[in-house]
């Protein structure tokens, strides 16, 4: 078997060249596990994996998890495969896809262990836009000055679906808020996550809606600054998709976003690998209200 790993950038990203017939081989799986921890994002160019192969690859790396069953596009043809598309025939509620135009971590507003990794394959592409950007949150933490690391160490952050889609709709209606709350939870997560292996990463994204104990404006300003810090060019890998590409990323240490597109024909198939670590917990309603009241 021929398997090679080519660094994409010094701080993030790797390109793996392997034939699809060997995607499930022990050597490939062990290479993916190792490189995913160090490179964060791995690209398999022109793999053209079927749903069955993508699910088998997902299962070889861990237990699969599906946290989008209530969202249009999930399980459309194959159980546990989510179709990411603006096609109204497949997705009658585009909020969640439009929300991916902004930095986020998959599943962070779900009351469960944070998904370990996301697998995405390109089925149909848009004529313009549609590239995916990935930012290394491990490296972003490591590069912070020591004094700032100490200041951030014990801060807690409120994450909401409302915040994630606020750039899409502005202030959501009460009906939309109730819909979002039925699909997810208001979660309180550490700003600095110490993983079971001792490594530390930031937990950031547009869904971060405030910092516990801080006035709303102060907390959001800090979160915005840290998000910009984490998205500095050296820590970001941008993947320009070609048909058949398969990409997997460490969802516990990488935030991502898609470059905006309008083409309803673009279709990506997503599967998800379950995590075992749960850094946060459901936030109290009183804490959420206190953040909004202090805005």
From TrEMBL:
Signal peptide (residue range): none
Keywords of this entry: Dioxygenase, Iron, Metal-binding, Oxidoreductase
Domain TauD/TfdA-like: 5-272
GO MF annotations in UniProt: 2-oxoglutarate-dependent dioxygenase activity; metal ion binding
Pfam families: TauD
Keyword Metal-binding: yes
Family matches, as InterPro entries: TauD-like_sf, TauD/TfdA-like, TfdA_dioxygenase
Gene3D superfamilies the UniProt entry points to: Clavaminate synthase-like (3.60.130.10)
Family per similarity comment: Belongs to the TfdA dioxygenase family.
Entry protein name: Alpha-ketoglutarate-dependent taurine dioxygenase
